[in-house]
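Thread amino acids onto this structure.
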């Protein structure tokens, strides 16, 4: 390879890199503007929530979220009762979940995953407790 060819390849790579840098700068500018818009909207929502909270009577307890997943409800139950050992059926009764066999088996699988993830421990067969 001669010097002329080497210089030509170097120029091609330089041009490609300069074009990529230009494209990235444009993306940064666009994302910076989008971030500013999102932060402004977030500030508006925070202010609105403060106003609404100020208008809500102090004894108002928000209802449990209907969008909580079963996993969230299970973890919350174990967090509220960290020392208690639950059987699946007892957990279902506490959470107001159906106690049919298929629901129980689905929860048994969920509890197994939580044990494998280290959130819960299994002190005995069919018994679950919050890991301490």
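Threaded sequence (132 positions):
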């Amino acid at each position: 390879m001669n010097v002329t060819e080497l210089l030509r390849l170097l120029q091609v790579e330089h041009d490609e890199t300069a074009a990529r840098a230009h494209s990235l700068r444009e993306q940064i500018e666009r994302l910076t503007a989008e971030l500013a818009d999102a932060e402004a909207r977030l500030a508006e929502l925070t202010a609105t929530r403060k106003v609404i909270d100020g208008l809500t009577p102090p004894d108002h307890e928000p209802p449990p979220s209907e969008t909580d997943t079963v996993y969230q409800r299970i973890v919350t139950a174990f967090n509220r009762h960290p020392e208690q050992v639950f059987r699946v059926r007892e957990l279902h009764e506490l959470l107001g979940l159906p106690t049919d066999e298929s629901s129980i088996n689905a929860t048994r699988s969920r509890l197994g995953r939580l044990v494998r993830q280290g959130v819960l421990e299994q002190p005995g067969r069919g018994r679950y407790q919050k890991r301490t």
